Amino acid sequence: MRKFPKPNSKRRPGARPAHAPKVTPDDVTLFGIHAVEAALANPQRQLIKLLATENAAHRLATSIQTRGITPEIVTPRRLDQLLGADTVHQGIALTTDYLPEPVLETLLENAADGQPLIILDQVTDPHNVGAILRSAAVFGCAGLIMTRRHSPPLNGTLAKSASGALELVPVHLTQNLARLLTQLKENGITVIGLDGAAQEVLDDASLSGPLAIILGAEGKGLRALTAETCDHLYRIEAPGALASLNVSNAAAVALHLVAMRRRG
Question: Where is this region: Disordered (predicted)?
């Protein structure tokens, strides 16, 4: 079993070692076994420092050794102090740079190859966005597009909910969503919006060719200009006692339907 250095008992509680890299406001701290393991495996992640309990360090020993970073062994209480007592950190925290943002052209190329794009119109809950990223990774999306404002930061909370998918699905941020949708349409991508009040049902859509699926925030739904810019609006048929799905569940249902149609 790989050995890691133990905490320095002579160091005052909470003090950083003198050799630790400087952390800046532009850095992000990821936590949770799956999120950290995926980040360690992503060569685009520029690593700054790794804090881990002895158990967590041994659990990810192969990934840590492969990436060539030496963890600072800490107690769970130290991580609680850094991240908050309610944070489910699983004994590990990795400070990194934010991932480089992909250019839109890369996502357009992926979509032209048949992978659907997923677009979020001001979805602000990081847990929902993380869950959508996970579905996007499962079903092979071309990428995720969000508004630069009124979207959650790509930080530890979102990455934990994405369970590693943040490292797999490119995320592009746009300043003007309506203009971006127009650009997608000019590049031959059909833009469909999910709207609980739409007349047409998603089951009846062809879902063929280059495709982008856009979802709005819970409660508000798609903004008026966004809905007007879509090629089609569809609702997910919900014959049960509840009339609608959570936005992350709706994304999973839509992506699964697209995947089934394209396999069939």
Answer: 1-23
